[in-house]
Write a structure and sequence with these properties.
There is one protein chain. The protein is an alpha/beta fold and 447 residues long. It has helices at residues 28-40, 54-65, 101-112, 132-141, 175-185, 203-210, 246-258, 277-284, 330-338, 359-369, 400-410, 432-439; strands spanning 10-13, 19-22, 44-48, 69-72, 78-81, 95-96, 117-121, 144-147, 155-158, 167-169, 190-196, 215-219, 225-231, 240-241, 263-270, 288-297, 300-308, 317-318, 342-346, 373-377, 380-385, 393-394, 417-419, 442-445. The strands form six sheets. The chain has a four-stranded mixed beta sheet with strand order 22-23-1-24. Strands 2-15-17-16 form a four-stranded mixed beta sheet. Strand 18, helix 9 and strand 19 form a beta-alpha-beta unit. The chain is globular and about 60 Å long. The structure holds shikimate-3-phosphate. Shikimate-3-phosphate (S3P) is lined by residues 29, 102, 174-176, 179, 201, 327-328, 351.
């Protein structure tokens, strides 16, 4: 999304029971990777169910600029013909990754060990986000980085053709950093190893295997993981069926839980165990969520969620260890907590400060504007739930999940809740408003 685009203020109002049998868009993490890995593989990869949000379309464009052929059929099937690991060509213009942190960081890993120079930029939100977390380990391979002050994009990556393999211990739980290092390892002679103290989403490991790469994963004594691969590798095209995104399913799920008598089925959701922290948490809070039709597809677990609003939620303590498995879901969990009886404490949310916005500050400001009692202690967010007065205007700071979370808050509040700009929703959930409205949600556009 361009930051110069005119803002689109939107509000939501008390909805009553929601009902529907829905499919949210494809998983964002898996969609990005399917285009990147397809573009590195030999042969043509067919991708169905791809998220056609702005973040992923930016990745499609980036892979084209690097030489891959990326085509969309009229029926929404994508075909990616790869160039082979090591054979990316130098882009002749700047690559604009829009709002996508995953896009820019994983792409940085890919180009770091190709002998090309790549220039990346993004929107106003992305240009505030730290790239040092990938530039540091990728420099150890021999790549060079030029960024603005404090590692912010625009960013130039001068790749190396004499990459040295790296063993890197992650200083934070981050699948993006883990993936950037593993992807740099694909075109590096020798074994690249990432040690992660807390397990983060493992779509890279699973999908690389699906493309024929031997990825070794060991569970460490402290519960962390050691992931390694030996390059250079050859990747073989492999079709991908993208499951629907649990981080997007989170919005109709919480909307159903906070509206008594709701009954919503959400189909084909990715239930990778490193992504299901929110479901675990909402069930602990008393939420009525049932998983049905569980199955495996393209290396991922998938299932349907049946959610009702029959139980009132209650406050709980959400442990710090669970954060990586629900890192994108805290804004909407804070909304669920606003409707729960008692206090919900969400522990150790430091990483939220460097997402599409400073999400800890953005969530606190949104709760404040709508009369929800809350406080921040260190990196913990504590919300006291009950009746939500609403009536506030929330600043979204180019953050899709802040926009959607507070629109869900309004669906049960005494007075409507407005967000200053609904445009960012298109980065991950382009049909959010239509799909929610079909279930009974009430939105009003303000000029
Ligand atoms: C992602 C990893 C997470 C998550 C992001 C997607 C990925 O980021 O917040 O939306 O696809 O690898 P971090 O690695 O910064 O935790």
């Amino acid at each position: 999304m361009s930051s110069s685009q005119t803002k689109r203020p939107l509000s939501s109002a008390k909805a009553g029971p929601l009902s529907g049998d829905i499919r949210v868009p494809g998983d964002k993490s898996i969609s990005h990777r399917s285009l990147m890995f397809g573009g590195l593989a030999i042969g043509t990869t067919k991708v169905t169910g791809l998220l056609e949000g702005e973040d992923v379309l930016a990745t499609a464009d980036a892979m084209r600029k690097l030489g891959a052929k990326v085509i969309r059929d009229e029926d929404g099937t994508w075909h990616v013909t790869g160039v082979g690991v090591g054979a990316l060509r130098e882009p002749d213009s700047v690559i604009d990754m829009g709002n996508a942190g995953t896009g820019i960081r994983l792409m940085a890993g890919i180009v770091a060990t190709h002998p090309i120079t790549t220039f990346f930029t993004g929107d106003a939100s992305l240009c505030k986000r730290p790239m040092g977390r990938v530039a540091d380990p990728l420099s150890e391979f021999g790549a060079q980085f030029i960024t603005r002050d404090r590692g912010r994009p625009p960013m130039a990556v001068i790749g190396t053709d004499e990459a040295k393999p790296v063993t890197y211990t992650l200083p934070m739980a981050s699948a993006q950093v883990k993936s950037a290092v593993m992807l740099a390892g694909l075109n590096t002679t020798g074994t690249t190893t990432v040690i992660e103290p807390k397990p983060s989403r493992d779509h890279t490991e699973r999908m690389l295997r699906h493309f024929g790469v031997d990825v070794d994963v060991k569970v460490n004594d402290d519960g962390g993981r050691t992931v390694s691969l030996t390059g250079p590798v050859e990747m073989k095209a492999a079709d991908i069926v993208v499951p629907t995104d649990p981080s997007s399913a989170a919005f109709p799920m919480v909307a159903a839980l906070i509206n008594p008598d709701s009954h919503v089925t959400i189909r084909d959701v990715c239930l990778n165990p490193l992504r299901t922290g929110l479901i675990t948490t909402l069930i602990e809070m008393g939420g009525d969520i049932t998983i049905t039709n569980e199955r495996e597809e393209a290396g991922e677990t998938i299932g349907d969620l049946v959610v009702t609003g029959k139980n009132r939620l209650k406050g709980i303590v959400v442990p710090a260890e669970r954060a990586p498995s629900m890192i994108d879901e805290y804004p909407v969990l804070a909304v669920a907590a606003a409707y729960a009886d008692g206090e919900t404490r969400m522990c150790d949310l430091e990483e939220l400060r460097v997402k599409e916005s400073d999400r800890l500050a953005a969530v606190a400001a949104g709760l404040e504007a709508n009369g929800v009692i809350h406080r921040i202690e260190g990196d913990d967010l504590i919300v006291t739930g009950g009746v939500v007065p609403g009536g506030g205007m929330v600043e979204t700071h180019l953050d899709h999940r802040i926009a959607m979370s507070f629109l869900v808050l309004g669906l049960g509040a005494e007075k409507p809740v407005a967000v200053d700009d609904a445009n960012p929703i298109a980065t991950s959930f382009p049909n959010f408003e239509g799909l929610m409205a079909d279930m009974g949600a009430k939105f009003t556009l303000h000029s």
